[in-house]
Amino acid sequence: SAIPGIFLTLPFITTMKVLFGNRHIIKDVRNYLDIKPLNSERRALWFSDIEVDPNVVKRTIDGMDIGISADQFPLKVVMPEFKEKTFEQNGLQTMNLPTFYEKKLASLNNFTFKFPSLLKSIDMLYKENPTEIIVATSGPFGLIGVLMSKLMDIPCTGLQQTDFTQKVDEITGENSMHDVTDSYLKWFYSILDYIKTPTESEADLLR
Fold first, then answer.
1. Which three-class secondary structure state does DSSP give residue 66?
2. What share of the chain is helix, strand, coil (3-state, %, to 5)?
3. Is the pTM of this model over 0.90?
4. Residues 6+ apart with CB under 8 A from 139
5. Which of 8, 3, 6, 14 is nearest to 140 (CA)?
6. Alpha carbon distance 169, 122 (integer Å)
7. How many helices (H) and strands (E) does the chain have?
8. Which residues of 177-194 are buried (b: 16+ CB within 10 A; e: fewer)?
9. What average pLDDT score do residues 122-136 get?
């Protein structure tokens, strides 16, 4: 089958746009990889491109009005592997996905984007048997989270916590990046099932 070729021949973000733009392709990929709905108790995967602070995760969950406290919510954080640990995870379950490419952006304070290996990541995440996805990032790990929600036909909630376009403007000082970033973010949030924002004004930025 030519389906896996999508993952191998196209750039990462282009691959995602192709997949999310056609429900028939998602269905074909689901069938090819033999991904079936699984019955399970409530379990969420939280996706992040950065190392997470467990206290921030707890406060966010408690503020999401999901009918369950963070202490009772079965949650696992999915993120890249970091050589230097900033936070003690203190009981927070985590998993690291294999990556195939890293890109350090000098224009964003040398932040390094790590791109997950798609086929290996899909296999690992499917075995986690999640019932919902939470993406706290619009980067590569956020995209793999959205992809899993589409493949497993489970809800995906995105957390919009800051005006990222404004932050890019402040860091880069380049007007040329504004429209690119703004267009990408509006596309990203348009493919989610739900969006949680801290304020109504920040919700307006996504419309």
1. coil
2. 45, 20, 40
3. no
4. 49, 113
5. 14
6. 34
7. 9, 8
8. beeebbeebeebbebbee
9. 93
| Residue 16 CA: distances (Å) to CA of 84, 141, 142, 183, 187 | 30, 12, 11, 15, 11
Q: How far apart are CA 67 and CA 170, in angstroms?
A: 37
The DSSP line for 95-160 is EE--EEEEEEEGGGTTEEEEEEPHHHHHHHHHHH--SEEEE--SSHHHHHHHHHHHHHT--EEEE-
The type of residue at 138 is S
End-to-end, the C-alpha distance of the chain in Å comes to 39
Identify the DSSP state of 163.
-
3 state SS for 4-29: CHHHHHCCHHHHHHHHHCCHHHHHHH
pLDDT in tens, 54-96: 888 888 877 776 666 667 778 899 999 877 666 666 678 889 9
Q: How far apart are CA 149 and CA 130, in angstroms?
A: 9
CA 128 to chain centre: 16
Task: Provide the token pair at 59.
Answer: 């406060």
Nearest-angstrom CA–CA distance, 126 and 182? 31
